[in-house]
Design goal:
The chain is built from ten helices and six strands, in the order E-H-H-H-H-H-E-H-E-H-E-H-E-H-E-H. It is α/β, with parallel strands linked by helices. Helix 5 packs parallel to helix 10. Pfam families: HAD_2.
Length: about 230
């Protein structure tokens, strides 16, 4: 992890599942196995995922129809499965290049409903952890709104120069409630129509498009302010 960044750097906060890693199919597979083993139906389907208000563990539990009696077992099942084979969850195409490029000009953090140990393990495998100034996971107190505020304070960032990049309506709402810019990534868990309904500030269909936008924004800002490149 890097030290605190200078005040003139923008802050980019990335959700993990559905933005950096293509985890939906794997999570659906693990959930289906659990549900079948416990006689709880067939698990997740795309329609249920798109309708979720919150892409958190509780959101997955509700979408899959897992009863309260099995919540702890399901959480343990997911954590163990993801830790057992982190490389089974692939990074989206272009993510390593995007992160390496943006880290040259912005402060990068992860704000996720996943456990930070799982995030670190996957990013370590791709040699990307060192690009992140902070990783906020579900084992830390508070939800995404609180974690966004914590990241702002820890990195001495301004809300106007901070962007939360997520793939669910819950991510967009968290950004809006924390007072930062909301960016929708349509390559993840929820559809562009669903994301658009929450009026994000920006919307991108591919990591390369997001990379290009923020690179150009940085170049325009430095040209106006005269900050050395």
């Amino acid at each position: 992890m890097k030290s605190k960044s200078p005040r003139n750097r923008g802050l980019l906060l990335f959700d993990y599942d559905g933005v950096l890693v293509d985890s939906l199919n794997i999570l659906s597979e693990y959930t289906t196995v659990f549900c079948r083993e416990h006689g709880l139906g067939e698990g997740l389907n795309k329609t249920d995922v798109d309708a979720m208000e919150s892409a958190t563990l509780s959101g997955l539990i509700e979408a899959a129809g897992i009863s309260q009696a099995y919540v702890r077992d399901y959480a343990r099942h997911l954590f163990q499965a993801l830790n057992r084979d982190p490389l089974k969850v692939p990074l989206f195409k272009g993510i390593p290049e995007m992160l390496r490029g943006l880290a040259r000009h912005y402060t990068l953090c992860v704000v996720t409903a996943n456990h930070s140990a799982i995030v670190r393990q996957r990013l370590d495998a791709a040699q990307l952890t060192s690009l992140m100034d902070c990783i906020y996971g579900n084992e830390q107190p508070g939800g995404k709104v609180e974690h966004i505020v914590n990241a702002l304070e820890a990195n001495r960032a301004q809300p106007t120069s901070t962007w939360m990049i997520g793939d669910t309506v819950g991510d967009i709402e968290a950004a809006q409630n924390a007072g930062v810019n909301a960016v929708a990534a349509t390559w993840g868990w929820q559809s562009s129509t669903r994301l658009k309904s929450k009026a994000p500030d920006l919307m991108f269909e591919k990591p390369q498009a997001l990379h290009d936008y923020f690179k150009n924004t940085w170049q325009q800002t430095t040209a106006k302010t005269g900050i050395p490149r």
